[in-house]
Amino acid sequence: MERIMLQPRFKDSEHFKDFWTNGNGRQLLEFSGAEVSFRDFEKFVPYYDHVDETGDQVVKDIYFTQNFHQASKEIEGYIRNGISEGDDTPESVRQLFLQVQTIPEWLDYQLIKSGAELCMRCNLDSLISLRDYCLMGGYDYAYLNKPLIATEALKKGAVKRLSETLDFWINVTRYDALKIHQKGYEFAIKTRLIHSYARLSVRKYYKDWDTENWGEPINSWDMMATYIGFSLVFMHSLHKLGNTISEEEEKGLFHLWKYVGYLLGIPENLLPNDKKQATEYFYLWTSIQPPADDDSVLLAHSLLNESMENPALKYKFQRRNLRYLHICCTWFLLDDEVCRRLRIPEVANRKAFPLVKRALNKIYDRLVSREARIRKGNASQMKVLGDYHTIVQHSNFH
């Protein structure tokens, strides 16, 4: 049965109007200079049912025909060594790798370098932004979270999920990481196939999937929104925390995530080039998303409580303090209404830490050279990632 034409069904809802007239949506409009309307809505509608069919076919041909370890080794061989037209490989594999090995005409490695340097230069603010704005804020979009619930991501635990997100983000945002056969390129392709594996599993095992409302699992329109989270929303968070961002870094950040999106199989016309375009795309997507539901609250509180589960800090009072600081940042970065929907706890003096951090960032940016900040930020971020690797490898976080 053919689906009824998708409409911007929540455009008159309180949560949508409040976000775009009073909350972070209004700030994004001012920050980007975007001009929003529903004029182009129908151009995006087909992508709610669009998925990465090439990636799906690779999973069927490779992962579903042998054990997982053997399949992973085979894919790693293609990633690290490449393929050519005459290779004796399944057609789906050849199709995928000929695409990702083709450098798009628009690609500018110097711009990618500038974007990577912004990610490193902002040090732990980058990780705060990812966690307390991008990830936590994403939980407010109830339909976007359904694949996480369907694949039982909560059972994996927040420590493991956060470790995987951090692993991906850090590895695609280092110098030269996205050049063919390099580590970021490898992470992008593996993540693409993880998405396909999850999508096929949801289709096969999750009988309650509501395609009418939720679209296809991990569809291209939702993927677009996710990667706008890594670019537009991430940059807005850095700005709110008092970081200065040059025009070159801004262009670079969007260029970096446009190329990551290309490697992940997201259609190129869904990948914004700048903050104005990203905000206009994001506006349309949010009109089909209801506010947080009970699943959203479970995901949000799992992330909040990760600080208490994570043994990186030895003493309970240290973990409790870290949780408090993340709660403060969440209230500072997200709208109050979003925090209330996600049932983020009220805490005393919640503005103090973010405001002090914002003031110190402005001073730090003036006193310390850009090159020194990049080196320091890279070292700090790699240290955090190393701590997570150690925890996951030596603990029962499965």
Describe the protein's architecture and organization.
It is a single chain. The chain has 398 residues and is mainly α. It has 2 domains: 53-100, no CATH class; 108-183 and 196-394, no CATH class. The chain has helices spanning 14-21, 24-32, 41-44, 53-63, 68-81, 91-100, 109-121, 123-138, 146-150, 153-156, 158-172, 183-205, 211-214, 220-240, 247-263, 275-286, 294-304, 306-309, 316-333, 336-341, 352-367, 370-394. The longest helix is centred in the C-terminal third of the chain and has 25 residues, at 370-394. The protein is globular, with a radius of gyration of 21 Å. The model has no long low-confidence stretch (mean pLDDT 94). Residues 148-352 form the ER-bound oxygenase mpaB/mpaB'/Rubber oxygenase catalytic domain. This is Oxygenase MpaB family protein. It is an enzyme of class 1 (oxidoreductase). InterPro entries: Lcp-like, MPAB/Lcp_cat_dom. It comes from Chryseobacterium endophyticum.
In brief:
The chain is mainly alpha-helical.
Assign a percent range to the helix content: 55-70%
Q: Biggest β-sheet, characterized?
A: none
Q: How many DSSP H or I helices? A: 22
Which regions have little confidence, pLDDT < 50, spanning 5+ residues?
Answer: none
Please give the domain count: 2
Q: What pattern of helices and strands is seen along the backbone? A: HHHHHHHHHHHHHHHHHHHHHH
Keywords: Oxidoreductase
Enzyme class: oxidoreductase
EC number: 1.-.-.-
Pfam families: MPAB_Lcp_cat (PF09995)
